[in-house]
Specification:
Residues 7-18 have a biased composition (Polar residues). Pfam families: Phasin. Residues 1-31 are annotated as: Disordered. The chain is mostly helical and 159 residues long. The protein has two domains: 11-87; 118-158. It has two helices and no strands.
Length: 159
């Protein structure tokens, strides 16, 4: 019985090895099929990603162009405003400087003309003001004198 049990155990062990070998080769085949399947899926996913990137890339590119145009418009407006402000300040500065130079030249010319004895426009204007003031005083004194004469003539008529 020992021999028959050993033979039976050997046959069973051989049978198990054969089954394991068959199952190994089946699992290896399944593994190879799975690998091919996954490889193909990876390839298809890559193609899909490439296609989507191409489609979305065009949309993204167009979107970026639009954003760039808006930004350029804003910066152009800001640049125009800055140039306008700088121009205004420069004009104000030039006007102030021009006025100062004119005053210096007027004073210098006036002083030079006075030194050589010539009358300037300022002198004439000053004299004109004085004459107007004098004329107003004369008119006032004339009116007061007429009033006094009327009062005197009334007093002499009453007596």
């Amino acid at each position: 019985m020992d021999k028959s049990k050993t033979a039976q155990d050997s046959a069973e062990a051989l049978n198990q090895k054969t089954m394991k070998a068959k199952s190994k080769s089946a699992s290896e085949r399944k593994s190879a099929l799975d690998f091919r399947k996954y490889t193909k899926q990876i390839w298809l996913a890559g193609l899909g990603a490439f296609s989507r990137a191409e489609e979305e890339g065009n949309k993204l590119f167009d979107s970026l162009v639009k954003v760039g145009e808006e930004l350029e418009s804003k910066t152009a407006d800001i640049a125009d405003q800055t140039v306008e402000k700088v121009s205004e300040k420069a004009k104000e500065s030039v006007t102030e400087t021009k006025d100062k130079v004119e005053k210096l030249i007027d004073n210098s010319v006036h002083h030079s003309l006075n030194r050589i004895g010539l009358v300037t426009l300022k002198d004439v204007q000053h004299l004109e003001r004085l004459i107007l003031q004098l004329h107003a005083k004369v008119d006032q004194l004339t009116a007061e004198q007429e009033k006094m004469q009327e009062e005197l003539s009334k007093k002499t008529q009453i007596k």
